[in-house]
Amino acid sequence: MPALYPLRDLIVTAAFAVFFIPMVLPAISSAAESESADSGHLETSKPISRTDRLVEQARDENWDADQLFVHLNLDEPQQCQNFSNRAHLRERQARWREAVDLLERIDPDHVDAWLLGDGDAPRIPTAETKRQLRCMLADLIAASLTSSYDIRLFTNPNAYFGGRYTEAADLARAIERRPRMLDRTINALTRSVTRNIHSQGFIWYRKFAFTGRSFNRISPHAAQRCSLTAGHTWKPDNRRHQRCWRTQLSATEREQEVLTASAAPGLSRHHWGTDVDILGLNPVHFVEGGRLHDDWRWLDDHALDYGFFQTYGDPGDEPYAHMEERWHWSYYPIAQALWEFVEDNQERVEQALFERWNRLERRWGGAHGPYFDHMREYWRDYLFNIDLPRVDARHSVGTQDAPTTPLP
Predict the structure, then answer these.
(1) How far is the C-alpha of 304 from the C-alpha of 52, rounded, in Å?
(2) DSSP calls for 198-262
(3) 36-45, 168-177, 179-188, 353-362: which range is least confident on average?
(4) Residue-by-residue DSSP string for 29-69
(5) Fewer CB within 10 Å of terminal CB in the chain, N or C?
(6) Mean pLDDT taken over the chain
(7) Which of 137, 130, 129 is nearest to 171 (CA)?
């Protein structure tokens, strides 16, 4: 009877629901939960960043600092970089700061060694500093032929090149004829570039122990304390100076006398491979009327176009500062990257610095110490008390823009 078939179909469907749906539902629920869990996992996980991949690769392949700098294309410039457009100076500094931060993630001990002078500074930043220094000094020499500055180069020209060139212009013309003389001249004009913690420690210990040749200048405070003449140099072979230094000045006062012209080991910017002393080391020659005053004027006007700035200006009445050094120039892109890193990581740097001072003090013994008590308290004041240049201004119309490379 056809009318009964729908009823039969309904009975079959109901039986299917009773017996089979309870068996199927757990499987569906389990699959749904699994899919939900996988979906949640995908939502919370993040792709590995370019920086993380680079750090992983550097650790796996045990890169040193220079290998990282090559990977970041910081070894590219082989010619003079023109920073008359200050935006290019800021860009170069930003790239070096990125490199320092990456190196800290890859090998923090390597950063500490670079900052504090354990061994030599990395090759690539040192090479960039020297290349820019060469460009700057070559133009300083050439300016003696055409500029209005009375450039002298040497306080005693007869001491160089067999006394053949008594005027800077004569030397510049000789270099035009024989370009190979340029490197020899630049070497003669460069007094100091890199020094590690041990060579800086030798300077510190010799002065603190009051031995060897004369050094620094007697401060007004020490002159008053010991009835000496302020501004004269300390002479370790002078009995009055010996008596003052060893019996009338405290260890803290002796540190402050050394600090007027010498950084403590571990805190010298010469550790970084970015700072140079050029032309001479006697402040008398750089003041108005001094033989190298116009050389300094030229540098003061043009050095930042090559990336250099005078690190230490007139300290005024600032008690925790080095004296003005018109011969000391820092290569801003790299030096400022390191300086800012220290500023952002002071506690970590302080711990590493104090460990190195402890080692030096154990090596030197207690006969002349303590050697760093004053600096343990005021190291920040000395390190951060520098004359930073303005890099947000651009020179007058007519300066050629420097080539630039994109951030890696």
Answers:
(1) 35
(2) HHHHHHHHHHHTT-SS-BS---HHHHHHHT--TTSPB-TT-HHHHHIIIIIS-HHHHHHHHHTT-
(3) 36-45
(4) HHHHHHHHHHHHHHHH--PPPHHHHHHHHHHHTT--HHHHH
(5) N
(6) 88
(7) 137
**DSSP state, 308?**
E
Contact 261, 192 (CB under 8 A): no
- The position carrying tokens 């017996």 is 19
279 within 8 A of 292, measured Cβ to Cβ: yes
Distances (CA, A) of 277 to 101, 222, 282: 28, 27, 11
How far apart CA 381 and CA 371 sit, in angstroms, is 17
**Coil, strand or helix: which one is 94?**
helix
Would you say 205 and 255 are in contact if contact means Cβ atoms under 8 Å apart? no
DSSP H or E stretch at residue 329: strand 328-331
Query: Residue 237 has what pLDDT?
Result: 97
* pTM of the predicted protein model: 0.84
User: Cα separation of 233 and 26, whole Å?
Assistant: 93
Q: Which runs of E-coded beta strand occur in 280-319?
A: 308-310
- How many other C-beta atoms are found inside a 10 Å radius of the C-beta of residue 202? 13
pLDDT at residue 401 in the model: 37
Confidence of residue 45 (pLDDT cuts 50, 70, 90): low
Cα–Cα distance, 389 to 408 (Å, whole number): 26
Tokens of 112: 């500490």
Report the distance separating Cα 375 and Cα 354, nearest Å. Answer: 10
Mean pLDDT to the nearest integer, 200-223: 97
Nearest CA to 174 among 197, 157, 195, 150? 157
Tokens read off for 167: 């005027």
| Tokens coding 304 | 């930042």
Buried b (16+ CB within 10 A) or exposed e, 367-393: eeeebbebbeebbbebbeebeebebee
